[in-house]
Amino acid sequence: MKIFSALYDRVMTWSEHRHAVRYLSGMSFIESIFWPIPVDVMLAPMALSRPNKALRFAMLATIFSVLGAALGYALGQFFYEPLVEPLIKSVGYQHKMDVAFEWFEKWGVLVIFVASFTPVPYKVFTLTAGILNMAFIPFLLISLVGRGMRFYLVAGLMMWGGEKMEAQLRKYVEILGWLVVVLAVVAYLMLR
What we know:
The chain is mostly helical. It has one domain (4-191). It has helices at 4-15, 20-31, 40-49, 54-78, 80-90, 94-107, 110-117, 122-131, 136-191. The two termini are 28 Å apart. The chain crosses the membrane at residues 20-37, 57-80, 101-122, 134-160, 172-191.
């Protein structure tokens, strides 16, 4: 069953849309607050389709992601009980918040760097940083470094790989897509 090839082609088409930069910026902003889809899903094809603008795309993703993180921090700090906590409970994220509290207790500000660079749900940690009243300027600086490293790495790899990487992705997209699905199911079962 081939579903990932069609999705791949659609994402590549979207990445060349005249408003793609706006979509990338908006997605980067909301992903740091609540959006479940990682920015890389849009950044990678945009960098592949326009390698001469890849670093600009990484810069925009970084800036808007950190701006979204600042809003997530503010929501956690000022609106946790009346707004955020009921929403977290209704979508079943309470366990993730509990893990975030534990990680903050264990690793302190380093957890912001880890969450901003890795696939760990960054949005949970932006809210938690606000809830725990983490110092705001270090929060922003660490977020800027972590998000910047991640997005520039993605853009750089796409620039470096270029057309050859795009051809290989297209060739193996079905295998890679199903592999990701299997890994996600295994990770879910292991963490449950």
